[in-house]
Amino acid sequence: MDxxxxxxxxxxxxxxxxxLRVPIAYCLGLAACLGLLLFFSWRPGGDPxxxxxxxxxxxxxxxxxxxxxxxxxxxxxxxxxxxGHVAYQARITTDLFDALQVWxxxxxxxxxxxxxxxxxxxSAITGSSVACASAMGRxxxxxxxxxxxxxxxxxxxxxxxGTLGSLIPPSLLFVIYAIFTDQSVKNLFLAGILPGALSLAxxxxxxxxxxxxxxxxxxxxxxxxxxxxxxxxxxxxxxxGLLLLVIVGGIYLGVFTPTEAAAVSLSVAILIGLARxxxxxxxxxxxxxxxxxxxxxxxxxxxxxxxxxxxxxxxRVTPAALEWxxxxxxxxxxVVLGIVVFYVVIGMFLDSIGILVLTLPFMVPLVEGYGFDLxxxxxxxxxxxxxxxxxPPIGLNVFxxxxxxxxxxxxxxxxxxxxxxxxxxxxVLAAILLIPGLSLWIPAMAL
Length: 447
Hints:
With 447 residues, the chain is mainly alpha-helical. It has 2 domains: 70 residues, no CATH class; 300 residues, no CATH class. 77% of the residues lie in helices and 0% in strands. The chain contains 23 helices and no strands.
């Protein structure tokens, strides 16, 4: 069988399984195994011989999965996931929101601003958007509803703010992208700083404008804090500040590698929780249990994707597609626009990790062929995946926030709430696309 035709048939089969709601790890793994077996068994112009194809297929299955799991950089994933859950159990995230609440209470939409800033701070000490949305949703959404905030703003601000966990370093998506594209995790982390800060500032501006134009969505609570209370609130921020210093400062200054920063920051978070007597044995066990489950899910998906990448590479379908596209004389700007539209559409239906591992085997050679910087492209892709987290009908962060709200708050209200933030995301995406320096300036300064 022609290898490129085989690749298209296998990709179609995997897509059909996805439509049937088969978990993406099984889709990719099954498609890759079948594709490899057919590739080695059915040579062009000959008859299939499955006994001949079984040995190389099993060899690739064993070597690929073993080599992937023994990738040192993968150890960052459980460490950063664990950091986020330990920080929540140790009340570090709760103290962060409480402190920000004191300083923003009198601003238009002050509690929503505190929620978004809290999401930004939480994102800077963990790499998971879902963990960020879940933790801040349980803390901030009930507080805003209690103070009379409309559900659209209360839920929309946290759902959108939670997406910052994808872009603000450390980001699990950047780690996975780096492994699949052989890029520097450190450079990708640094590249996400300015776009992440721009997204955070845009969310705050959106809340202020919304609250000024429609004061009823964010009543100003009758809260008055003294100077002493403000100083005391600042004192609650030192755990987050210390973790930021370890992660961002340590990586930027070259004191730690990203993996070392993950290990040290997790140890520091545990020590902070124990020293302040906020981290109990029950809380620690819960944090570790959730970390193990989420890590296992990510690893299984990634191993299936790695097998699928091996199969796609053997068929050489991607170089053939790139050669055809370049032969058409397509303008690079139109190619990038097509990639953006593709990710926006697919982001409506699949989760971020699934999209990343499914599309990189095709997109990376295409982007490299047109001479685009892969670090810049990584930021673009992660920003697009952020958008997918709040895009209907399968905006994962929206469903996470729904689990934190009363039954009388429907999904349609949350999706309406994220609409303005979604528009802001598109503006930030345009800035990243048109001004590559937003992504590349800090990595260049760190060289």
